[in-house]
Amino acid sequence: MEQALETAGAGKSAVSKGQVSGKKLDFVKLKTVVPSDAKARLLTEFSDLNTVLGGGILMGSVMLLAGQPGIGKSTLLMQICAEISKGHDVLYVSGEESAGQVKLRAERLGADSERLNFAASTSGNDIAKTIETGEFDLVIVDSIQTLAMDEISSAPGTVSQVTNCGNLIIRAAKATDTAVVIVGHVTKDGTLAGPKVLEHLVDVVLNFEGDRYGGFKTVRAVKNRFGSTNEVAIFEMAESGLKEVQNPSAALLAERTNTDGSVILATLEGNRPILVEIQALATPTNFGYPKRTASGFDLNRLNLLIAVLERRTKLKLSDKDIFVNVVGGMKLNDSAADLAICMAIASAVAGRKLGEEYVVFGEVGLGGEIRSAFRADQRIAEARKLGFLHAIGPSTVHDKFVIPAKDLRETLIRYVK
Q1: What is the arithmetic mean of pLDDT over 274-292?
Q2: What span, in angstroms and rounded, lies between the C-alpha atoms of 210 and 295?
Q3: Which residues contact 393 (CB under 8 A, 6 or more apart)?
Q4: Structural contact between residues 206 and 64, judged by C-beta atoms closer than 8 angstroms
Q5: Upstream peptide bond of 143 is cis (omega within 30 degrees of 0)
Q6: Beta-ladder partners of 360
Q7: Residues 116, 195 share a domain
């Protein structure tokens, strides 16, 4: 048999040669392997971020942090370094900034530990070799799009460079049990730039979202091998850096004035219930083609809901420009926001208000029916905590706090006054 394989390997085919070049794998009993979760975790100063990560940064894990330019990625990472360097050796590698620039940020954020180190490099080979020394517990690489390998002639940021530099760093991290955070750029539409294979290679993919000029910023895991992807950390930017928002509902509603077009939505950010204000504005169309604009809500979903409103109610919206805004820079991915959006639009068009004692949640079907919402009990508990008296929601929720709504038209007639 072995002789037959050697004869097959004599050909020029890579597959044929591979048949004889391989060797038997070294394997272990799975029962004897220590689970990754049993290893120590590095805790950041942000409790919610630790929860998003599944309990902290796991030793030997590789994380990819992506976000818009200026959103605060470098600020967040420096604050993480400041906390972890109090008890561990940390290396911050930058391919975009000089030591002087990073030093200014570190001083502003109070990162003055003796165990925090800095290096400026764009060489994937050098960074991987430094990680292989095992001298550091945490290494920050800012960013993967600036790195290049000596063996590849293409420019930094190309598919081959990003893929191979990523592979090189990941191998070094796994070999030495070093935690690594890699910063990634995003494209114009907000998706991670570069090859999709990079997201598959790393253990955790974090998205840093929000308005770069104000409002709340969120960090959520879209991939997490060591924890849930349903958690979210909410931050706001201050002069001293990013701060966790402990009660986002109260902060979002603090400046609210009850006018027509304003509705309070009980939504979820991950597993956290939040009350946010939905604002709608309707104005006459001037050029014969109605304009629809949404901030913080999917525009295609808005067009669908407007079509349902026109078909299932007596509202005429074809001659009106409609603008919808989610206050505080929040971005909604919750199907239960449908009813609040519809009620806000109806309120704006009719010039009527919804009572201050109500919060709203529920999905709207194409037939105008109100469908059930995920984790209704958490939404209700948050509304009660902030002093609301009733919730307008699906009839499938059996709670005295909830006024059941079965049909969109009947709900609008009854509550938008």
Answers
A1: 93
A2: 11
A3: 266, 339, 360, 361, 362, 370, 373, 376, 379, 402, 403, 404, 405
A4: yes
A5: yes
A6: 265, 392
A7: yes
Q: How many domains does the chain have?
A: 2
Q: Which two tokens stand for residue 377?
A: 């009990």
Q: What is the CATH number of the domain that holds 355?
A: 3.30.230.10
Return the closest-CA partner of residue 65 out of 251, 219, 292.
219
Show the tokens assigned to 62.
């590789």
For residue 59, the enclosing domain spans 37-246
Residue given tokens 């960013």 in the structure block: 143
Same domain for 41 and 164? yes
Tell me, yes or no, whether 242 and 275 share the same domain.
no
Instruction: Please indicate, yes or no, whether the overall pTM of this predicted structure exceeds 0.85.
Output: no
**3 has a pLDDT exceeding 60:** no
Can you say how many angstroms the Cα of residue 3 is from the centroid of all Cα atoms in its chain? 55
The pLDDT tens digits of the residues spanning 4-63 come to 545 545 556 777 777 777 788 889 998 887 765 556 789 999 999 999 999 999 999 999
Angle at CA 200, nearest 5°, toward 199 and 205? 40
Among candidate residues 138, 187, 153, 147, the one with its CA nearest the CA of residue 167: 147
- Give the model's confidence band at 161: pLDDT under 50 very low, under 70 low, under 90 confident, else very high: very high
**316-341 confidence digits (pLDDT tens):** 999 999 999 999 888 898 999 999 99
Of 262, 213, 253, 211, give the one whose Cα is nearest residue 234: 211
Q: Is the pLDDT of residue 411 over 80?
A: yes
Angle formed by the axes of helices 338-350 and 299-312, nearest 10° = 60
Three-class secondary structure of residue 243 per DSSP: strand
Domain with residue 176: its CATH number is 3.40.50.300
Query: Helix, strand, coil shares of the chain as percentages rounded to 5?
Result: 35, 25, 40
- Specify whether the CB–CB gap between 216 and 330 falls below 8 A: yes
Q: Rounded to an integer, what distance in angstroms lies between the CA atom of residue 241 and that of residue 75?
A: 7
75, 97 in Cβ contact below 8 A?
Answer: no
